[in-house]
Amino acid sequence: MSVAPMMDWTDRHCRYFHRLLTRQTLLYTEMVNAGGILYGGTERHLRYNAEEHPVALQLGGNEADKLAQAAKLGEEWGYDEINLNCGCPSDRVQRGAFGASLMKAPQLVADCVKAMKDVVSVPVTVKHRIGIDKVEDYGFVRDFIGTVADAGCTVFIVHARNAWLQGLSPKENRDIPPLRYEVVHRLKAEFPQFTIAINGGITTDDVVQEQLKHLDGVMIGREAYHNPWWLARWDQLYYGGATCALTREEVELAMVEYMEREAAQHGTPWPHIARHMLGLRHSLPGARIWRQVWSNHLLKDRPAREVHALAMQAYASAAPEQHTEPGALAAATT
């Protein structure tokens, strides 16, 4: 199991939160541009919490020498895996001719992978789509994997949708191109010697378990972010371990303590951290008023522990019918 790299979401604070819920799931950074690491502040881009292991660094770029330098720095900082993004369809990424655009240049991807593998000892992996635009040609993705594998890559994380580089936003690219899980299953059948994981639209244990009948791994994206308590079962279900030993209340308190450490050590405002845990009480009665307290900008200058107390007070007193009533929130913030 792994949690997908998600821009603006899976920062080190989010990963610290997820690690409280699952000890063994592989966590990924947001995509980091290789040039940003080399020229925009190495520490700013690579700093993470020791508790996050196992954690993979996802790189964006298309210049083999820069990717190799960034990968080497990632290994020196202690990341457990280096992953190359060949799936992001955003306009900014397209202008830089990397992300999903790289699937049109498999030999370039192979050159980049080889350059990284030559300088690091940790695994170098690739995350990609099953195709580009509206052409649904199995041979395209089969040949992409074959070419990249010749450079020594043996792990492929496959988002089971095409990336439409024209006409769709990144958000629409996560929903509109049809999911075609059967393509990923066919890839595994054709390349049984490689580790192949699937990503895209998976939201339940039933679907995870069905995919694991065909594939080596499952990567979860938005559902892991919006419904993080799901992760608390993964160590037991997929690794033969125990479920998360913490209650939701203990996880929240651990995050408050983390907010206090971050504020003291790095000056990090607590809202930058709290936003990642707003799904902790997903679907529970009282969850909405609890989220509203933690999200209230009028409280941003108060200490995190004080906001925690207000949120818990509001949550404890909220009945399901109060979810849409602003009065409870007003009472909690006065």
TrEMBL record:
Gene3D superfamilies: 1.20.120.1460, Aldolase class I. InterPro entries: Aldolase_TIM (IPR013785), DUS-like_FMN-bd (IPR035587), DUS_fam (IPR001269), DusA (IPR004653), tRNA_hU_synthase_CS (IPR018517). The active site is at C88. Its cofactor is FMN. Residues 3-307 form the DUS-like FMN-binding domain. The keyword Transmembrane helix does not apply. It comes from the Bacteria. It is an enzyme of class 1 (oxidoreductase). It catalyses: 5,6-dihydrouridine(20) in tRNA + NADP(+) = uridine(20) in tRNA + NADPH + H(+); 5,6-dihydrouridine(20) in tRNA + NAD(+) = uridine(20) in tRNA + NADH + H(+); 5,6-dihydrouridine(20a) in tRNA + NADP(+) = uridine(20a) in tRNA + NADPH + H(+); 5,6-dihydrouridine(20a) in tRNA + NAD(+) = uridine(20a) in tRNA + NADH + H(+). FMN binds at P5, M6, M7, Q58, K127, H159, N199, G200, G201, G221, R222. Keywords: Flavoprotein, FMN, NADP, Nucleotide-binding, Oxidoreductase, RNA-binding, tRNA processing, tRNA-binding. PROSITE patterns: UPF0034. The record marks N85, K171, R174, R288, R291 as: Interacts with tRNA. One of its GO terms (molecular function) is FMN binding. Its EC number is 1.3.1.91. Belongs to the dus family. Belongs to the Dus family. DusA subfamily. Catalyzes the synthesis of 5,6-dihydrouridine (D), a modified base found in the D-loop of most tRNAs, via the reduction of the C5-C6 double bond in target uridines. Specifically modifies U20 and U20a in tRNAs. This is tRNA-dihydrouridine(20/20a) synthase. The lineage of its organism: Bacteria, Pseudomonadati, Pseudomonadota, Betaproteobacteria, Burkholderiales.
